[in-house]
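Q: What would this chain look like folded?
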Amino acid sequence: MSKKILAVVAGVTFSALNLFAAGDAGCGLGSVVISKNSKGLQLVALTTNGSFSSQPLGITSGTSNCSSSGIVSNEKEIEYYVEVNKSELLKDMAKGDGESLDAFASLYGCQTASSKKEFKEITKSQFEIINSNKENHQIWIKNLNTVLKANKDKVHSCNVI
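A: My prediction, written as structure tokens:
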């Protein structure tokens, strides 16, 4: 009797999760079942991925919303980085140097010391424009991308979006 109840609960839960959408938790079964980008559902997706060990198989086989390289799109990586590290990133941008800004420059494809230096100088000199909307990180990133595109000649060795 308890196996039937468990099966019904699992079926209802799986059906309910299919109504939502996920991607922040990475690829794997969790991203197939859940696609809504809310923190709570992403935790469920992450737990699902971990419980079923579906990410390694998905990455290896290119299934379950995984690419064969297992790499998340660059725009999403940038968005996640800003969301998690924004306060430290703002401090580093204001002074034109720091670990978080260095790592952030790498997300934009700035791999050499000179390209990172240019990136840091631009973000410092254009800080007010970039930071004109500090509440919404997506608009903040859009402002940054606009500034970088306008200065593409200076950051030509970076992969400006």
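Residues 2-61 form one domain.
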